[in-house]
Amino acid sequence: MQYFQALKIGQKRVASAREYLNTLTNGKAMPALALVTGNSNVWMPVGEENLYAFVDESAGFVLTDNSGYILALVDKTGSSKTIVQGVTKQQKELLEKVFEKDNIQKFDGKVILPV
Fold first, then answer.
1. Cβ(92)–Cβ(68) below 8 Å
2. pTM to 2 decimal places
3. Within 13 Å and on the Cβ side, how many CA atoms surround 55?
4. Do residues 10 and 34 lie in contact, with contact meaning Cβ atoms separated by under 8 Å?
5. At a CB cut-off of 8 Å and minimum separation 6, what does 95 contact?
6. Distance CA 75, CA 81 (A)
7. Which of 52, 37, 58, 48 minimizes the C-alpha distance to 13?
8. With the C-alpha atoms ordered 51, 56, 58, 64, is the resulting torsion angle positive or negative?
9. pLDDT band at 67 (very low <50, low <70, confident <90, very high)
10. Using one digit for the tens of pLDDT, what is the confidence trace for 80-99?
11. Which residues, listed in sequence order, are joined to residue 54 by a DSSP beta bridge?
């Protein structure tokens, strides 16, 4: 797929995921990755599926503050489409219940965050 074609598709998927997450987080969702990172020159948009993941320092990331978790909606490869920073433990628990109700599955692999 050509770069701009993949980017356009990926941007639409990011916007859709961000819109959903904004409804749950009072507009705090930020866009993340529109393209799947890979080792080749083949451009692929992030996947259509939405899975959720909460990231903290135990996942191998060094967070710049200690205000809680990063919430990411990711595709099946772990590429984050939208993120929310500073999620507290209480918010995390409430959001997990919403995701369960909305049939959004938990992602258990390695999350790829924007740098």
1. yes
2. 0.88
3. 25
4. yes
5. 24, 25, 52, 71, 87
6. 7
7. 48
8. positive
9. low
10. 999 999 899 999 999 999 99
11. 71
